[in-house]
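Practice set, problem 2.
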Amino acid sequence: VQLVESGGGMVQPGGSLRLSCAASGFTFSTSDMSWVRQAPGKGPEWVSSINTGGSCTYYADSVKGRFTISRDNAKNTLYLQMNSLKPEDTALYYCTRPVGLYSDYDPPRDYDYWGQGTQVTVSS
């Protein structure tokens, strides 16, 4: 199994970035997927999840209205479009596969696959 994130970088507050995650080694099209981030000195924080077909998306309150999760099952790729970025969005962003049921108010509690992460830094 491989999850390879890309697209991170440094951006000014208010800017945008688009993260990508290339998946291989498992059946991507039948897997829900999630983005999880970890800021320096803090624990992992769930950001967003998407169902297998992309018709259902879920977001943490901290990113709702600013971030958009999507997927292309033909390309085995997961995306996270991040707009109106804030300094508090600075973190290492991981592509993950969630385990078990979840919703907006009850995010995933476990993940069985993780990528290596891509760094997002929001600073002026």
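Problem 2, part (b): a different protein.
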Amino acid sequence: QLRLVESGGGLVQPGGSLRLSCAASGFTLADFIIGWFRQAPGKEREGVACISHSGGSMNYADSVKGRFTVSRDSVKNTVYLQMDSLKPEDTAVYYCAPRCWRVEGYNSWGQGTQVTVSS
């Protein structure tokens, strides 16, 4: 079963940047569509970005469009989420998964990586 591991979170000031990584062992991530999700305290998990198998198609939630960029590195077998112009409302635990947008029906979430945007 595909298991993904997220990393790269941390504490950053408003307006700052972070790059999250999503890695897998034993599987080729290029074989999967990959979505980034986040869950803020007291809120439901939501999709924020999606990248196609080839990396030629990316889609974003309106709340992050123009600030977040999702990409693939096939050599490193890793998917990234570059987050710029971070806002306090971006504070959440971020997850990646081999699906986009739909949270229901997926039970293999990783531990996620905490992103905190605060001055």
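Answer key, part (b): The mean pLDDT is 95. The first strand starts at residue 4 and ends at 7.
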